[in-house]
Design a protein that fits this description.
By secondary structure, this protein is α/β, with parallel strands linked by helices. It has one domain: 3-Layer(aba) Sandwich (Rossmann fold), CATH 3.40.50.620. Helices cover 51% and strands 11% of the residues. The protein has a five-stranded parallel β-sheet with strand order 3-2-1-4-5, sandwiched between helices. Helix 5 links the parallel strand 4 and strand 5. The N and C termini lie far apart (59 Å).
């Protein structure tokens, strides 16, 4: 079955595409990630994905516009709910693109990460599938997370240290000083 696979980065694409192909899917990777900050990080992840796609000869569609402002407008006063807004923004664009291309199913490599909210991703994906009359591929890819990291090292892909958004970058690197 043809599948438009929202893809956040090269490392997450490694095992995800391998497993989906084994399950009978024909994935086309789709890079749309307006949440990633800063711009250089967005570009590094895109280049890593392009390198992986070329190596494995997998189809890849790129959204070249850097839409950080749209992401920030949705999340600026909703920091605690930011992941839900982010999932919806990226999956809705993926569902729209799948519908436009006549692809019957869509999914996301976000489902490989043990750090993402799988239940919320699947809820949003299911709602959008119903809205666009598509199928959302909700396979649990998390068992392959360690393999994806191993493959990323083997393929010499750039591996990031945080989810991508400005908030996750802060949470990863900024440690407030303890008050005495």
């Amino acid at each position: 079955m043809d599948l438009l696979l929202h893809t956040c980065c090269g490392p997450c694409a490694t095992y995800s595409t391998e497993y989906l192909i084994q399950q009978g899917y024909a994935p086309t990777m789709y890079y749309y990630n307006p949440n990633i900050h800063p711009y250089q990080e967005w570009g590094r992840r895109k280049e890593s994905l392009e390198k992986f796609a070329a190596r494995k000869q997998l189809p890849l569609l790129l959204e070249e516009e850097y839409e950080l402002s749209a992401f920030l407008q949705q999340t600026v006063f909703h920091e605690q709910e930011r992941c839900g807004f982010c999932y919806r923004m990226r999956l809705e664009k993926t569902a729209r693109k799948a519908k436009e291309l006549g692809v019957p199913a869509f999914g996301t490599t976000l489902l490989i990460s043990p750090y993402q909210n799988r239940d919320l991703i699947c809820q949003v994906g299911g709602e959008l599938a119903a809205e666009f009359n598509l199928t959302f591929c909700d396979l649990d890819l998390r068992p392959g997370f360690r393999r994806s990291q191993q493959l990323a090292r083997e393929y010499e892909l750039y591996r990031q240290g945080y989810c991508g958004c400005i908030f996750s970058e802060r949470d990863r690197y900024y440690k407030p000083k303890q008050k005495a």
